[in-house]
Design brief:
Elements lengths: L3 H11 L3 H12 L19 H7 L8 H21 L6 H10 L1 H11 L9 H10 L12 H11 L6
């Protein structure tokens, strides 16, 4: 069963770029609502149990609608929280936070400024490089130049 139309509706509700949200869910779970990662992340949005306890509203993490709704709400909240912490308002920061944790990104930015991305774990750098182009119109937006350069130099190919 495809949950893409539901994901688009939810992304629109929370102001998340729909192409980006679809790419994120595909990356996280390949649209398998019963997905469980080796680390224990669950459902379409791949929430760790501790994060699901805060964002799942008491629902089943394997419920596609609940997982998609929580993922979109969480992305929106991450963006607002990072901004409140003095971190620039860009999807690159949000995606890194979804993957590595909000505190990790905040601390990397506070300690390294514009070089924050260089100190992120390789998994997170790869994750952001793969998803970021889907979150901005034609890859242009806050932080796009550094990410575009990283993608270019690492040899990643954008595939729509």
């Amino acid at each position: 069963m495809s949950y893409k139309n539901l994901a688009i509706d939810i992304a629109n509700t929370y102001g998340i770029p729909k192409d980006g949200f679809l790419a994120l869910i595909n990356q996280e779970s390949t649209w398998n609502p019963l997905a469980v990662s080796p680390a224990g992340a669950m459902g379409l949005g791949q929430f760790m149990p501790e994060t699901w306890a805060d964002w799942g509203d008491g629902k089943d993490p394997f419920d596609p609608e609940a997982s998609l709704d929580a993922a979109a709400r969480y992305l929106r909240w991450i963006r607002q929280w990072l901004t409140s912490q003095g971190v620039p308002n860009g999807w690159d920061y949000v995606l890194a936070s979804y993957n590595a944790g909000i505190g990790t990104v905040r601390n990397a930015y506070r300690n390294h400024g514009a070089g924050w991305f260089d100190v992120m774990p390789k998994e997170t750098r790869d994750y952001v490089a793969k998803l970021y182009p889907h979150f901005t119109e034609k890859g242009i937006g806050p932080g796009a130049l550094p990410i575009a350069l990283i993608v270019f130099f690492l040899g990643y190919k954008y595939v729509a």
